[in-house]
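Appendix B. Extra example for self-study. Work through it before the problem class; the solution is given directly after the inputs so you can check yourself.
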Amino acid sequence: MRYLNIKRIFFSSLFLINSLSANEKLFDEDIEKLLSITTESKVDVGSRDDERNYLSSNTPIDVVTNQQIKDCGLTSLIDVLRYYVAGFNAPETSIADGSDHVRAYTLMGMNPDQILVLINGKRVHTSALLHVNNTIGRGSSHVDLDTISLVSIDRIEILRDGAAAQYGSDAIAGVINIILKGSGYSNILNVQSGIRKAGDGEQLEANLFMSIPLKYDGFVNFTFDAKKQNQTQRAGLDHRVEIPRVTTHVGIPDYKNYIASVYTEILQENGTNIYSQLSVEHKDSEASAFFRPSNEISKSLYSDGFLPIIEAKIMDYIGVIGIKGELDDSITWDLSNSYGLNNFHYFVNNSMNYSLDASSPEKFDNGSLSFTQNTTTLEFKKDDDRFKIAGGLEFKYENYKIKKGDYESYIGTGSEGFAGYGPENEVDVDRDNYAIYIDGIYHLSEKIKLESALRYENYSDAQESTTSKVAISYKLTSKIMLRGSGSTGFRVPSLAQSFYSQTSSFIDSNNELTTQGTFRVDHEVSKSLGAKKLKSEKSKHLTIGTVFRPNKKTSLTVDYSYIVVRDKIVLTPDLSPRTQEQKEIFAKYNLSAARFFANAARMTTKGINIKLNHQYIASRNSTFDFGVWFSYSKNSVKKTDDISLSNSNNSTEIMIESGQPKDSLKLLTKYKYKKLETTLNIDRYGSYVQLMNDEIYKFNATWITDLNIAYKLTKNIKTSFGGINIFDAMPNKWDNLDGDLYGTNGIKQYSRYSPFGYSGAYYYIKLSMKF
Amino acid sequence: MFKIIVSIFIFSISLFSYETENILKVVIVGKVAKYITFPEKASKEFVITVYKNRCGTLFDDTYRNIKIKNKPVKINYIDNIDNIDNLGYTDILYISKITSSKLSEILKKTNNKDILTISDNRGFAEKGGVIQIYFVSQQLKLKINTQVATNKNLKIEPILLRIADIVKGNQ
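Solution. Structure tokens for the complete assembly:
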């Protein structure tokens, strides 16, 4: 009887459900409830179709929403992406000169300079820094994501597809499009403080977002962000000193970061929209080099050895101004100019120049790097019922400068820790390019959507290129969509790759002073090793996938990508002279090793991304969301330049192929009950290897757990606390590596490739106030 | 225990989940009418006119079995701005995203008509529309121009005014 009653309830409910369409049920909801529903995120990136969401896109797109940013308790954009995007890798490196201060990131194991970054669809300039050490991202300059405040962001779109035919150079591994908050956002003040489990790495951040509404939904949005981070210390004992002790700083750096930005849109009654964005960032960051044990030369200044501190002062500016309007019923235009400047100024403190003996200063100005980019774009868009078409012209100017440091920083062996840039390194080079592009979307039928793009680009210092893209989706049923795209792409060598040079002296693992350097391809040292003028990387992409939506609460996307990059630009390993001619040239510059950039490899990336999302609504006041996101990518590299790489070990190939986890699994959950929100995420980072002293060392896969608990104290005040890596998981140490600097019991006991760092658990508390 | 699980299951699938912006827009167009008193008109149907439909069959699908003001709902579609002059009887005019010049023209044409105008065009309420739909952080919001509503003899209930941003003045 009881069973029959349940059956009756069940079937009568099903009947009720079936008799009403989903939209009719929505109509019966309270209006307040309708206004609290979260809609599927829209996406702009990778298409001119402004009506689509991420599940209806022809190409795979991840979206990190404003709410997700608030839910994770992280304070930097790069960490948010690592947290939410499977296959996005951003290790925390240490003792790697400038790379300690501008974190590199990769997508599907591909270099950061193969990821184009946009803000509101406009190209962002890269950092002036070029990663030249053996870190992930080696050989690339990329956008410094720490220059953008999280509180200013509405959402982040990550296109996992080539898009050079739409955006030009660099869009090979994917495109990150950051959409800033527009009109209608509440003013908010956030204060957050956190600390590592070990009691160090304290962070304090305060940020403020203020919006002033203007006529016709225009706005002036202000963002201020101040953040301070103290270093973590995970160094092992230094066995090079008489009584072993911790001498070196190994961990995340000390820094202070300030960001101020203003984003405005002024709308006229006739639809004209004048928009602008001004952003200024200043970062002052400090990290160390390896400790220099006392020696005969240094005794005069430092009786007990010294730890050189490398200080980076980074200034970054973004200035965008534009005007949009309407030509007639269906044609709109957009004229804009985007300016970006990044200046990276090196200082070294607590150091000395061995060549100057006792007369050496202890503080050095080591010179600076700067990169400027100015892009002017005029775009027209025609929007018709069945098709949308856009075309435009773009003119871009770039400038790259290296300014020398103090004389004492570069003369002789240069300042210890990081030698200054000398007169021979100074450059002031520029280039320009223009592009013409056309991009269309055609709704061939209710079920088929076709997109195509064609772009011609001409750089003053590189070959002209024409790239194209076709993407199509087909709705097999109301619940299943098939999608695919094919495209060509390219990446011009950055000015830094063509013109960067620097030599440095340090004490190697054998405790010997050695000098090595990075040389321009047109330098005689590089030429003697086989360097040639750099040409553009060229790529081909294929993506196929499916979107399955059995109901509104569940979605499953599966996408396979295949990318081939020809003429991949790599920074060669440190090469030693082999021929007599090379030895003579090396002797002339007192060198032991040299490296330079070369189009030296063909790289293939195969990957699969799977995303399952489901929302379970337990009651009117409680919801449970969960997602299972998985990414697998396999990179293979084939040497194509016998001269540059054959004279070396396989470190380049090993780093590209196995230096990063191939697989990444994320289990994300969010439970919401009335005023309480709990986010619990579990990540699995796959294994990876690092080459050290010509031996391959493997590091195990690791599970990380993150937790955030938030409670709304009042309508406008919310407090949250939680932790990243709450169980304090650590990567395994080097396995039986016997070295003083890098070793199981050495100073650096963990690999710098660790995808989640090696600073351990981080706990925080946060207070947010809307006003 | 089984009963609890079944009840939760039934309850959960009878509620809503993530919606597209278009579905919410379509639903809210008719929903707001529940909170508005329209001038007395002799009509057996509640008429929603859609200018430049960009929502496929969503309007028809949603309102097929729904009654507003105890009347069945009729959906009219128009694409030509000249048809605004000959709208005939309509309670709501929903205007999809269009250019500002076209929007001004439509607002001018409907200025003296007792029609509830709704749109998601930017600045709609300030330009003389009655209810503007917009999305912030993936949530729908409303902006209401009370002055224009009064001019059109539309009486809006406080519950709707309380949850919307209010714009005053007729541009």
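Self-check: The domain at 38-330+345-770 of chain A is CATH 2.40.170.20 (Maltoporin; Chain A). If your reasoning did not lead you there, revisit section 3.
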